[in-house]
Request: fold
Amino acid sequence: MKYTEEHEWLRAEDDIIVVGITEHATTQLGDIVFVELPDVGTVVTKDDEVVVIESVKAASDILAPIDGEIVEVNDALTDNPSLTNEDAIGDGWFFKIKASDPSQMDEYMDEAAYKAMIE
Amino acid sequence: MRVGTPRVLWCRTLCIQDIVGLIEKGRKMSDLLQTPLHDLHVKLGAKMVPFAGYSMPVQYKLGVMKEHIHTRTKAGLFDVSHMGQVMVQGDGAAAALEMLIPVDVVGLGQDRQRYGFFTNEAGGITDDLMLANRGDHIFVVVNAACKSADIAHMKANLEPAVQVMPITDRALLALQGPSAEAVLSALDPAAAQMKFMDVATLSLNGAECWVSRSGYTGEDGYEISVPNSQAVALAEALIAHDDVEPIGLGARDSLRLEGGLCLYGHDIDTKTTPVQAGLTWAIQKVRRAGGDRAGGFPGAEIILEEMDAGAARKRVGLHPEGRAPMREGVPLFAAAEGGAEVGVITSGGFGPTVEGPVAMGYLPTDLAKPDTVVYGELRGKRLPLTVVKMPFTPANFKR
Reply:
């Protein structure tokens, strides 16, 4: 698992990367009440805004961590956005992206580095 | 995850920060004022944030959503000690206040409370407030961000004929929700005898408290002015009850929004008149055109004229379709495409009891009728909202 400075986690499943936000992020955001997901098939560039999440206290953007194509989104979040609060690194994932340049993953932190950052 | 840019958040609750924000941005938490309950909040696991110059709990461990639901189903305890408490005392105190406030203060019965507001010469609202007739004085509670201006305003205009005395040796607690009566009357049975908007002096946990049966959540409940030195013990005694949880400013905001209640600095301000804000119910007949004490307050000509002719715009409740919250600042349009902006959302967010987004804002009068569909522009898209009557959740007062 890799982590971005924007509190996203990235889990590689072969050349597909699953993206979500960390428990630390959900704690900061509070109860999530709305998630807007991208369309499957959207081709994105690193740092594009791909997901909007609204919590009781904030609207936030999730940025594409790498270049690639959105191949699957977690539709369960549309009806039940609190899944992300309940299971941030599991059922609360946002989207899967097919990486066009898997080496872009190299710049991201490992778990130890991420933990050090949030402490 | 990028939080908040360019849409700034927490606005709903922290927005009084719009007024004091610039000062606070450069200020450390340690420079903030603390209420007598500060250490208790920290002990209870509150997340403390700057609000109107104070370090205040925005939420506790339950989080905003559960705190909100708890208040609507059982009871919540709020620290609102940052608000201004003022005694106006002396012969003619009620009549004197009528020079600044367009409500019937003279006719307010003993041990009764009433909502009101200060107005300016342009008919705008400079703060909203609660007034209570406590026999030998009028007890006024004003908003935290406005309190020093309000006190200066009263002193400048009312003294020396009457005395304006800020109360700084008392904290202010609010106990709100359907269990509030049972919880408070266990400490003093007289609490149960009070009706909505009654005031009384109760003995609570050994403290002499000035209590009103009112609040800012749309629920039954009480506001309790308690001596600073006894505030923590009283708060702890209340929280000790199984039905009571401490509730932060986050849920206070979503509760009052569902209740259709205005937040000063957002839904009402110096640019909005009481007529536009839909608050003419608070201006009793005696102060209106043709009344025995008509006018005589700042902006009376403008406000009374507008009451007669009708306002060009009105504050309305708005129900966004779908799940996306529409927050303060979202521009409103008459059509799904084209046309100029016709209004704006002044408060909005997710209503935990409604289980969906709720908002209020201003619209031209011809678009302000219930069931009218308007469009809010969110992230470049226009999404429909329906004008609805407020409150969003039925008020639960003990009349």
